[in-house]
Amino acid sequence: MVSFEPSVLIVDDAQMVCKILSDELSRRGYLCTTAYNGKDALNKLAAVDFDVVLLDIRLPDMSGIEVLARIRSNHPNTETIVVTVVRDVDTAVEAMKLGALDYIVKPFNLDKLDTNIHTALETRQATDRFPTRMDAIARGVEARLDSLLGYSKIVTQETSDIARQLDMPEEEIKRWAAERVRHNARRNAAIESSLNKLERSPVAQRMMGIAVPYLFTPKPDKSQN
Hints:
By secondary structure, the chain is of the alpha/beta class. Strands 2-1-3-4-5 form a 5-stranded parallel beta sheet, with helices on both faces. Helix 5 runs antiparallel to helix 8 and helix 7 runs antiparallel to helix 8. The radius of gyration is 20 Å and the shape is elongated.
C-alpha cells in the first residue's frame, strides 16, 4: 500500500492537458510537476527523484521514446506510464521494452489512470528493495536480449547464475529472484492489457494482419452486366 505523497512528473506538449492532469491528480494527493517538452522533462528528472512519469509520445523537441530510454538509463527507480493519442502497436511494444509500466491511449478515464499510478508506485517500492548489485547484473543481461516475450525468465535465470559465480549469498539471490518474478508478472499484465486495448482499433488490426469487416459493401460493376 502506498503511504506517502507520491511525486508525479507530467510530460505533455499540450499545456491544457498538463493543467487538467496536475489539478486532478493534486486533489488526489499527488505532488505534480509539469514539463512541456523532452529537454525540460529530463532537466527536471535530473533535479528531482520523481516516483512516476506520465509521458506523451509526441513531443516538440524529441520523441517520448527517446525520453523513456533516458529515464530507464539514468533513473531506473522511476516508473513511467505512457499517455498518448498514438494508437500504434509497434510503438506500444517498444515503450514496454524500454520499461514503460503501461501504455494508455487518450482519451482515458482518470480513475483508471489513478489505479495505474498506484500500481506503478507499488512496483517502484518493490523495485527499491532489489539489491543494487543484482540489478546491475540484470541490466547487463537485458542488454544482450532483443525479444519482448519470454525474455524475463531468461534474465532472471542468467542473473542468478552469474550472481552464484560471483559467490553472492544464496538468500540474497532467491529473495531478488522472487521479487523479480512478481515485478515481471505485473509488467506483463500491463503489456497484455495495453495491447488488448490497442488491438481493438481498426488501424492496429490492419497492422497486425487481423481481418477487419468492410464498412461498405462494394457496388456491383454494371459494366459486366
